[in-house]
Design brief:
It contains 13 helices and 18 strands. The protein is of the alpha/beta class. α12 (335-345) runs parallel beside α13.
Length: 438
């Protein structure tokens, strides 16, 4: 079975790493610059050129936001897999550690097995199991599986859930949807989607010391929206407020003496761009997502704390909230969510958001810095709309989780469009406002 990978970038490279070069015929990318040279040793072509080839390869859609691509492929009747329907490790999150435990994963599957879900992950599992001599394994199609994809996979053993149960097969959940997921899992089923549970040891025990360490206190989550003022950072510093910040905030360090107590970053492209800057940050606690395949996480300095990123299509439509930051974190398409989950893990009972504008506009400067933010390029309106919808769902999930635990999240941002959390006046939290530089 051959594949054409849509996206000659970071995620496309991960697909190549997992499937191997022999399985991939080419990469599809709309960028003319990328079409001029090979990627991972394979040609890069436009979608129109690929269609003209008359190829019967299955397309692997690697981009994070892919609604427009899916519409195109559906319209043309092209079968495809979505990378973000696979476990986070297949998208590169913690893949370095996962690769050392593939044997443990495969050993979990018995001979008379049924793998729930038809996806790139389950087809890969099926091939690996067959290579180990486990021939009596079938795939169980999920509701609403693509007809074009099932037709193309007609040579594989694909069945339905009722028949798999009648045959007495052991069921393994390898695809999260509304039927089976991390909240709905029959006791007799085995979860092979969340690999952080008993297969890949992603848990970072060094983070455990932060659990409940700030119980009952208040903190500020400082984002990088354009509404953020240097005067506000000075006030936070002068009042000794505990702050958690993120991403490109370090570009502000030459304009204020304020520094965050904790810093978070999880975007793979951002980590890759800022790698050297991150290593030079004069901060005590840097929390970094396991998002980059080229970074040697084991060699990071002691002030770095690696956390496992849990992301994918299921959690973007049914957002998760971590109750154990040391084991896993659900970013929900925004680093602000990671910071809020860290704050709750540390025991803060009042969390104030600052600089969370939630007002991204294509083509505008959407961050206070004018540095090399990975999301500053112009995205399409549909991309922004899709992202905003998922981020909004994430914020609502955080509000619900916090409310059940007596944790209050307030929005102290000056302006912006985030109305999920109760608004408070930033200046009113401190009394007299101190001007910048006073």
């Amino acid at each position: 079975m051959g594949y054409a990978v849509w996206g000659a970038g970071h995620r496309g490279e991960i697909v190549h790493r997992i499937l191997g070069g022999d399985a991939i015929a080419c990469f599809i990318d709309s960028s003319p610059d990328k079409q001029e040279k090979p990627f991972c040793g394979k040609p890069v072509v436009s979608y129109a050129a690929w269609k003209a080839m008359g190829s019967r390869d299955i397309v692997v859609v690697s981009p994070f936001m892919s609604a427009d691509i899916e519409k195109t492929l559906d319209s043309d009747g092209v079968p495809y897999f979505l990378l973000d329907e696979c476990p986070p490790e297949f998208m590169g999150f913690g893949i370095q550690k996962a690769e050392r435990h593939w044997d443990s994963l495969l050993a979990k599957v018995c001979d008379h097995a049924a793998l729930y879900g038809v996806s790139l992950y389950t087809v890969w599992l099926l091939d690996c199991l067959k290579a180990r001599g486990k021939e009596d394994v079938v795939l169980v199609r999920q509701p609403h599986a693509q007809k074009a994809l099932l037709d193309r996979l007609s040579g594989l053993p694909v069945t339905d859930l009722v028949r798999a149960r009648k045959e007495g097969r052991q069921l393994y959940v390898c695809f999260y949807d509304d039927c089976f997921n991390d909240r709905i899992m029959p006791p007799s089923f085995v979860d092979l989607f969340d690999l952080s549970k008993g297969i890949v040891p992603h848990r970072n025990e060094r983070i455990e010391k932060f659990r409940g360490s700030q119980k009952g206190r208040r903190c500020f989550v400082v984002a990088t929206g354009p509404s953020l003022r240097m005067e506000d950072l000075d006030v936070l510093g002068k009042n000794g407020e505990f702050c958690i910040s993120m991403n490109s905030i370090f570009y502000m360090f030459d304009r204020t003496s304020w520094r965050p107590d904790c810093y978070c970053v999880s975007d793979g492209l951002g980590i890759d761009i800022w790698k050297q800057k991150l290593l030079e940050l004069p901060l005590k606690h840097i929390f970094i997502g396991d998002s980059v395949i080229s970074l040697d996480y084991d060699s990071l300095p002691d002030n770095f704390y690696t956390f496992h990123v849990m992301t994918g299509r299921f959690w973007r439509t049914s957002p998760g909230v971590s109750d154990d930051f040391a084991a896993r974190v659900y970013p929900g398409n925004t680093i602000t969510s990671v910071c809020i989950q860290l704050a709750m893990y540390m025991g803060f009972s009042e969390i104030y958001l600052l600089g969370v504008d939630f007002n991204y506009k294509p083509g505008n400067q959407n961050h206070i810095s004018s540095g090399d933010d990975p999301d500053e390029p112009t995205f399409s309106a549909s991309f922004v709309s899709e992202s905003d919808r998922w981020v909004l769902g994430c914020y609502k999930a955080l509000r619900g989780y916090a409310g059940k635990r007596g944790i209050h999240i307030y929005n102290a941002t000056r302006g912006g469009k985030l109305e999920v959390f109760e608004r408070v006046d930033f200046d009113g939290l401190f009394g007299r406002f101190e001007p910048h530089g006073a």
